[in-house]
Each structure stands twice: as C-alpha cells, then as structure tokens.
Amino acid sequence: MPSFGKSLIILGLIIAAIGAIFTLGGKIPWLGRLPGDIYVKKENFTFYFPLATSIIISLLLSLILWFFRK
C-alpha cells in the first residue's frame, strides 16, 4: 500500500499547485497572454484559447510527475 500513499501525496501537490496558479494567476502578468495564445475579438464574438500557456503548464506538470516517479 505504500504506492497508494505516494499517489495521494502527488495528487495533493498537484491540487495545491493548481490552486496556487489560480490564486496567483492575476498577479503574474504574462500568464494567459503569451505570444502563442489565440485571441479573436469580433463585434458580438470573442474567442480565447491559451495554447502556449497550456503547453507550458503541461510541460511543467510532466516534468514534476517525471521527477516524482524517479
């Protein structure tokens, strides 16, 4: 069962990191406004897709999970 405990710790750290991102997201000016993020604004339509931000967050989470699996 030690594997279950380690999984819970990793899950808790991931949830804490997501909470920190949401809490500090407004204080980090570049988060969500990177050059690769797609933003289209028309008269009655706005489309926003944070592509570059999503890729960076995915890479960071993959690196963190890889580090804990070693």
List keywords for this structure.
70 residues; mainly alpha; two-stranded antiparallel ribbon; 60% helix; transmembrane helix; DUF2905 domain-containing protein; DUF2905; transmembrane; membrane
What do you see in this structure?
Pfam families: DUF2905. With 70 residues, the chain is mostly helical. The chain has one domain. Helix content is 60%, strand content 11%. It has a two-stranded antiparallel ribbon with strand order 1-2. It starts with a helix and ends with a helix. The model has no long low-confidence stretch (mean pLDDT 83).
Q: What is the CA–CA distance across the termini?
A: 18 Å
Counted by DSSP, the helix tally is 2
Shape: elongated
Counted beta strands: 2
Q: Give the mean pLDDT.
A: 83
Secondary structural class: mainly alpha
Radius of gyration: 16 Å
Task: Tell me the major beta sheet.
Answer: 2 strands, antiparallel
Strand order of the largest sheet: 1-2
Protein name: DUF2905 domain-containing protein
Keywords: Membrane, Transmembrane, Transmembrane helix
InterPro entries: DUF2905
Pfam families: DUF2905
